[in-house]
Structure to design on (348 residues):
């Protein structure tokens, strides 16, 4: 046990959306430049189109095309009407090549962000079977401690912890955990959610499962709060290893959106298999609205996920359908903190 007093945690008094908006706003200009360069605006002026039609016309990856169109709509350059994207007045006036007010040259004038433009162009042209190769490479290095520089591993864990800790307090405050005794936090990172829940529910026990190198860091965070007696840590590759059992709840935060629908179904079904009747699944997620065209921070994040991992943000309806397909019922959803929501389903 550490001798230090554990930090005292209160839910922040305001949301963190302005920070999401500013940090992800770095992708707005590159997304607009790429759209302008490939000729998206004159194409949509003549032919309002669905994401599939845009992907077909430009030979783009369909998920990447849908993500880019969502970004442009959330920024006001496109509008969605009956499934098709149309140009808006601002695009008609300032982004069509024949317009005397065309901003094309100005957009590309320094300071442009060439690496981000290349990243967006890269995913637009990426075949579906190549998506996620980078994530597999990065996460592969986390399976054994020592394969990745320790400082880098710490940064990966710290990045999610900073965003997850206030959300964890909100999940514990607003979520329904009545009757949950043992919770498995799969791909639980630094253990932020187990820490938040453990502070509010003194009877509950937890396991944080993650790749081995991250588990080392989680152990330290848990010790900082003197919660090692109630939160255990276990190295698990959730796609390759046997899952631990004996839990009445499985919790995933910011995981389904990393992996796309097919692999998320696998995670949902594995959870279903290890849970008893009445057991619960929790998904803590950033959700897009059904139209997938707002707000800018989330449409951009959904596009960025395509090259940082391989997923996209889901809508509430998509996750409801996905959990139902895995066998869960009584699916509920509540807002938690900032842009996050908590979805819960029960095994019949
Ligand atoms: C975005 S972080 C989320 C962490 C935590 N759930 C949170 O919201 O704070 C993604 C986590 O997934 C873990 N992860 C990636 N691939 C995994 C795998 N195959 N098995 C287990 N964990 C994995 C990463 O190590 C990382 O901690």
């Amino acid at each position: 046990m550490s001798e230090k007093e554990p930090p005292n945690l209160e839910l922040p008094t305001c949301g963190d959306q302005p920070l999401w908006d500013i940090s992800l706003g770095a992708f707005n200009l590159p997304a607009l430049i790429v759209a302008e360069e490939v000729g998206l605006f004159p194409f949509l002026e003549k032919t309002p189109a669905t994401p599939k039609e845009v992907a077909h016309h430009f030979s783009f990856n369909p998920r990447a095309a849908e993500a880019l169109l969502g970004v442009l709509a959330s920024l006001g350059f496109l509008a969605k009407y009956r499934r098709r994207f149309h140009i808006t007045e601002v695009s008609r006036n300032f982004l069509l090549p024949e317009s005397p007010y065309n901003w094309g040259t100005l957009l590309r004038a320094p300071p442009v962000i060439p690496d981000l433009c290349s990243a967006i162009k890269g995913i637009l042209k990426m075949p579906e079977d190549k998506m996620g190769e980078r994530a597999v490479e990065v996460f592969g290095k986390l399976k054994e401690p020592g394969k990745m520089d320790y400082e880098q591993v710490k940064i990966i864990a710290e990045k999610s912890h900073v965003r997850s800790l206030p959300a964890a307090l909100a999940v514990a405050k607003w979520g329904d955990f009545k009757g949950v005794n043992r919770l498995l936090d799969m791909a639980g990172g630094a253990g932020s959610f187990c820490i938040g829940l453990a502070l509010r529910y003194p009877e509950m026990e937890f396991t944080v499962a993650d790749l081995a190198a991250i588990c080392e860091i989680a152990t330290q965070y848990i010790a900082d709060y003197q919660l090692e007696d109630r939160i255990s840590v276990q190295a698990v590759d959730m796609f390759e290893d046997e899952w631990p059992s004996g839990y009445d709840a499985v919790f995933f935060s910011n995981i389904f959106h990393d992996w796309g629908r097919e692999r998320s179904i696998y995670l949902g079904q594995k959870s279903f298999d290890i849970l008893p009747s009445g057991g619960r699944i929790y998904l803590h997620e950033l959700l897009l609205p059904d139209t997938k065209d707002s707000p800018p921070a989330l449409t951009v994040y959904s596009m960025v996920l395509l090259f940082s991992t391989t997923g996209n943000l889901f809508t509430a309806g998509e996750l409801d359908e996905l959990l139902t397909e895995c066998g869960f019922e009584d699916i509920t959803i509540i807002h938690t903190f900032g842009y996050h929501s908590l979805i819960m389903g029960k095994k019949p």
Remarks:
- Residues 139, 142, 160, 164, 187-189, 192, 210-211, 214, 236-239, 253-255 surround S-adenosylmethionine (CB under 6 Å).
- The domain at 138-346 is CATH 3.40.50.150 (Rossmann fold).
